Structure formats: structure tokens, C-alpha cells
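Help wanted!
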Amino acid sequence: MTMIVDLFFPLSPGLLLILGGLLVPFLSHSIGRVYVLLLPAVLLAYLIALPDGNHGAVSMLGYELELLRLDSLSRIFATIFLIASLLGNIYAWHEPDPVQRTAAQIYAGSAVAAALTGDLISLFVFWELTAVSSVFLIWASGTESAYRAGMRYLIIQVGSGVILLAGLIVHVTATGSIAFDHFGLDAPGAWLILLAFGIKCAFPLLHNWLQDAYSEATVTGTVVLSAFTTKLAVYTLARGFAGTEMLIWIGAAMTMFPIFYAVIENDLRRVLAYSLNNQLGFMVVGVGVGTELALNGTAAHAFCHILYKALLFMSMGAVLFRTGTCKGSELGGLYKSMPWTMGFCVVGAASISAFPLFSGFVSKSLIMSASANEGYWFVWAVLLFASAGVFHHSGIKIPYFAFFAHDSGRRPKEAPLNMLIAMGIAAAFCIGIGVWPAPLYALLPFDVDYVPYTTAHVITQLQLLMFSALAFTVLMRTGIYPPELKSTNLDFDWVYRRFLPRVMGRLGGAIDIIYLGVTDNAKSVIRAAMSASVTVFAPGGLSGRISSVGNAAAIVAFLLLVALIVSYSAV
Amino acid sequence: MSADPQTPEHHPKHDEEPRWLDDQRNVNKIIVAVVVVCALLFAADGFYHKHPHFEAESWFGFYAIYGFVMCVGLVLAAKLMRVFLMRDEDYYDHDR
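Answered by r_m:
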């Protein structure tokens, strides 16, 4: 008995968060909301106290599951996931819906558990659990479009898990090992596993579930969603596919194409989802470059990104909560009545734009430097363009159209206190990391030999950003900048939301016509056969004529005679 | 804390004190400030030691010009995308 206990303990903080989350439905609103603040806080302290190493090994069906693998890579992701869970729960303090509160804990717990597992089978289980638990945060909006976006999200996310399972089966059959370590592209089943990770990481053309779902989820749900799924995928890529060159190009494409959509998108939470996609691109480039500096950059950027992206979604969530809309065309001038939310939003905007003294500056530059060190000049130029672009749409557009621009006449109340506290803590992290990056650098997977604050780096970054701002100003003043319009912009999801259904519809129609043609012809053949058989077999027909029994007896006698003659001659 | 109703609150604008930003002259001041800061940053390129990875980085004002040109290009390209990709807001609403 002690043996099993020894094997099981220490338990994974992720598993504990899932189990703890299962208790939430049994608690009242007033107790539950305190409980979900204590739960991740206690688990964070527990995680910090746990030593590195492999714990929690469980034998099952002949495989050794490893529920708790703590090393420098899994630790930083589990840490930021728990911090994000805590911030999300503070932000959702006012939210009485027990379904969302329960789902948020189980979702966060499965992300932490997935990041901490050392084997593919457990990874698959928690991978699917993140999908199934998080969809409730989308459905909780209660609208028809949220329901359908949630269905699409669930199909794609569970599909990613099924592909992961297929890859895992191929891999285990060929190698006999379920260990989740570095694969590279040559390992058996690696392409399937990479595809599964790529779907969750919103690779180009696999990305639309992100913009689709995050703009439909509830005010508090989107804040929670933004933290876990995609960064779990970044972690698994860093674990399994570091140094895979293809990822550099995929990542570079990911930093680029979403910013074009972000410029013309009207729904500001959708703009943030596009910029989330763009930021993931930086992390994927870091994984692809795969040097110690690059992987440090990926981990650091994921850490900072979760905080500033949650902060930005929190500020837009507060706007949505107070005004009932998040559309740029319907907002403007909100700084007059929501100054705190505006201030926190600007901190998030400065952080994602990598302004000096804000968190993005000390993390993104690791990836930029790593790709430049390895001589990828084209990738470096793309990342530089994407950096300017992200300032343009997330740094300027989001705060500008929500809080300034033309006055919409709306004077909503300031965000609730709990939202302001959550935003305040996230903003403090953003500035704190930017001013004093040493504690973050100490958490990174490899030793850091990098100084972000050099004269050249600060000045060149300020040049890039201020001239982007100048471009925005010039385009705004000359009226060239595209206005915020109520619209839907076609993205790749058009293929499966409109094109394929239409093609299938047409195909179905064609099949219908062919089917009808075939059956009509068949019917007339059968009809002809029927009428022919009527003439033959019907009363009065050829075979249907009433003939006397004597005739039949004569025929039978004749046949017997033939048989007799044949058999007699054969003897 | 109680949950607040998610209804927009409209107040008539005329009973408000005008804010600093409501005055167009102050907006112009901000724009002038942006231009001045940009000019100073551009000039600053002559006063520090560069350690470039690529040759382009050592060109005078490379980051400034790149940022400006690429952002204008980004917006123009995005505007062009609208011609092909923009549909009504309820485009997908009637799909099943």
C-alpha cells in the first residue's frame, strides 16, 4: 500500500485543480468564489515547493504513466497557467454561473496537468479534457451563434485530440515507448502528432477556431480561454519539435497574415484573437530556431503574453460587460467614464507592442535576437514587420477605437471593482517584468546571457514603434485609414462554413438528380416487366390460362417417359 | 459586489464639462509631440554605437523608415483586402 502511495505522490497540481474544480458545483456562490481564489493560489505555492524530477508514476495496462514531470520547461508553463487561473477567477468574481466557474477550474487544471505529464497517453487524456471543459465557456453566452461557434470549436479541438491519438498509436506501435520527449519529424507518427499540436496552436489555415470562438465566448470566458489552449500547444511543440526548421516558416507566416485581418476587423475581441494568433507565431519561430536563446524566448514570451493578452481581453470584456458591445463602430470616447479600464488597456497595449519598460520588450527580443543570430534575415525582417504591425492594431487600434476616436455618446460606469483588481494585478506584472526582468529570466529553461536594455535596442525599438504611430496618425488625418465598419471578413473558415457546405449541397443535389433518374428508369423497366408478366401470368394470359388437370397429368406423364427412356438407355 | 446590469448607459452630452481632448487644438498638440519625438529618435541614430546582425540595420534610420513604410503598406493592403473579403455583418447568420 505504501508503495502505491509513494508512486502516486506528490500528486500533479493540475490533477488537484481538476479534482478541486469538481467540488465547485456543490458550493454556494459566495463560498465558491472565495474557494476558486484559494485553490490556484495554494496550488501555485505547492508547485513552487515541489522539487524537479519525475513523480506520480502509475502503471496502467502495461504502460508506465508519468503524471508529474517537473523540469525547467514544464515548470514555467505550469506556473503561468496557475497565475492565469487565479487572475481569471478574480476577474469572474461577480459571475454567478456555476457552470462557467466549474468549467474554468477543470479547463485550467487539465492544461496544467497536460503541461506536467511525461507520457503521451496522459497528454492525450488532458488534451481532450481541455477541449471538452472549455467549450462550456463559449456555450454559456447562450446565443445561437455562440452555440454554433462552440460546436465548431469542439469538433476541431476534439479532432486535434483524435489525430494526437492516431499519432500516439503509430508511435507506440513502432517504438514501444509512450514517453513524451523530443520527436523531430523523423519519429514514427511525428507528423500526426505535429498536426494535432498545430491545430491547437492555430497554425495558418488551422487557425479559425480561435477567432471564431474567442469572440463568441462570455465576457469572463474569453479571458480564461485566451490563456491555456494555445500556450499548451506552444509548450508541446517546444517539448517535441524544438529545432524543426519548418516551424520557423510556419511561425513567420503566423506572425504576418493575422495583422492584415486585425486592421480591418470591427469586433475588438476578434482583433485581439488575431493578434493572439500573431503572437503565437513569434513563439513558434522560437521553437523552430530551437537554440537555447530561442527556446528561452518562446517560454518567456508565452509567460508575458498570457498576462498582457489576458489584460487586453479583460479590458475589452469590461467594455462589453458595461456597454453590451465590443464593436469598434459602436464604441469611442469611453475614457471619459471608464478611465481605469482605459489605463489598464493601454498598459496591455504597450506590453504587447514591446515598448521598453513593458513585458513584451524583454521577451520578444529574445526570439528576434535568436533568429538574427542564426542568420535568418528574411524571418527577422518578417518578425520586425509583424512587431510594427502588432503595435498598429493592438497597441493603437484597440485603445483608440474603444476609448477615444469619435465620441459614441456612451457613458458606461467604470468596470466592477473585481475586474479592476484583476486588471491591476496583470498590469503590475506587465510593468514589473518589463522593468525588472531578472526573476522571469531565472525561471527560463536555460541560463540567460542576454541584456535587453542596451542603447541600440531601446532606440531602434522606439524608432520602429513611434514611426508606426506616426504612420497611423498620418493615415488617420488624411482619411486613408479604413474606418470601422459593421462587417464580416472572409477568412479560411469560409471554406468549411460556406464553400464546403455549398459544394456538399450541390453534390447532394447532383446525387439526388442522378438517383431520381436511375430510379425513374428502373421504375419504368419494372413497370414494363410487370405489365409483361401481367399479359403472361394474369388470368387469361399465356401461362395463366385455366387448363384441365388432364393436360397437366399428360405433361407430367410425358416428362416421366423421357426420364425413363434416358435412364433405361444409360443402364 | 453585485452584478451590474449589462445595459448601456447613455447620458446627454451637454451637461458634461468638456475634456482636454475635446479641444481640437489639444489633439493637434499631441500630433506635434509625436512628430517631434519621431524627429528626435531619427536624429538619435547618429549618436550611438550600433552592433548590427544584418547590413540593413546599420543604415541611417533603418528602423524608423521600415516601421513607417511597412505600416502604411499594411494598412493599404488591408484596405485592398476589404474589396475582396468584406461581407455583411450577418453573412454567416443564416447558415446551418
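OP: Thanks! One thing I noticed: Residues 20-85 of chain B form one domain.
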